[in-house]
Amino acid sequence: MKQMLARGAESVIYKIDQWGFPFVLKWRQEKPYLLKDIDSQLRRSRTSRECKMLTISRTLGVPTPAVYSVDLDNHTILMDFIAGTQFKQLAGQLSQSTLISLCHRFGRLIALLHAGDVVHGDPTTSNVIVDEKSRLWIVDFGLSEMNATIEMKGVDLHLIHRALETTHWDIQEDMLDATLEGYVDLLGNTAEPTLSRMNEIRERGRYH
Ligand SMILES: Nc1ncnc2c1ncn2[C@@H]1O[C@H](COP(=O)(O)OP(=O)(O)O)[C@@H](O)[C@H]1O
Ligand SMILES: [Mg+2]
């Protein structure tokens, strides 16, 4: 049984039931406006990157779906299905204290990645799944990178800032404060250079 779960900007997510267990098949579709060779190359490298970074991130302590197989020719990844709701969809319905606590944990997870010199690359609330026990899972690692510099980590935080202000306009400030608090909570003083880089990047953006 194959059921379409979501259609993102670059992929289609199917839920598959096999051997009595639910799995997710992520398929990167063709982009009609790109040259065929370039498109195929891009889908191949993002699929490979995602597969690798999902696993590396888990070893850093960040909950991610386990990967079972990857097919680079067909641009698919078979992984665990995470039962839950996109944080993006949930955020507006939560009590203030629950929202703050989830954002705090989101910030801690991003900090765990950064502590391991990994950046997520697309750290939006639609790439966070909240399960029934209120645990957070991070997905969508196709733009993730290793050996990250302060600049790359600053960009990651800047992307969080920007995503919050475009999707959660009425609660964005509380969400950002709590997320950054969680981030600093985990990293302590070592968060400082990345936070100032985030502000610098934001300032740069204002004048361009
Ligand atoms: N392993 C998974 N288990 C459950 N839901 C998932 C899983 N992976 C992705 N999803 C859902 O599908 C959506 C799109 O997946 P994502 O990997 O973010 O693709 P895209 O790159 O197209 O944004 C996610 O926001 C999430 O809601
Ligand atoms: Mg996504």
Structure commentary:
With 208 residues, the protein is an alpha+beta fold. A hairpin with a 4-residue loop joins strand 4 and strand 5. The strands form two sheets. The chain has a five-stranded antiparallel beta sheet, covered by helices on one side. Strands 6-7-8 form a three-stranded antiparallel beta sheet. The chain starts with a strand and ends with a helix. The protein folds into two domains: 2-80, Phosphorylase Kinase, domain 1 (2-Layer Sandwich); 84-206, Transferase(Phosphotransferase) domain 1 (Transferase(Phosphotransferase), domain 1), CATH 1.10.510. It has helices at residues 36-59, 87-90, 96-115, 150-167, 172-187, 192-206; strands spanning 2-7, 11-18, 21-28, 67-71, 76-80, 84-86, 128-131, 136-138. Helix 3 packs across helix 5 (172-187), helix 4 (150-167) runs antiparallel to helix 5 (172-187) and helix 4 crosses helix 6 (192-206). It is 47% helix and 20% strand. The chain is globular, with a radius of gyration of 17 Å. The chain binds adenosine-5'-diphosphate and magnesium ion (MG). Adenosine-5'-diphosphate binds at residues 5-6, 8-11, 13, 24, 26, 65, 79-82, 86, 126-127, 129, 139-140, 142.
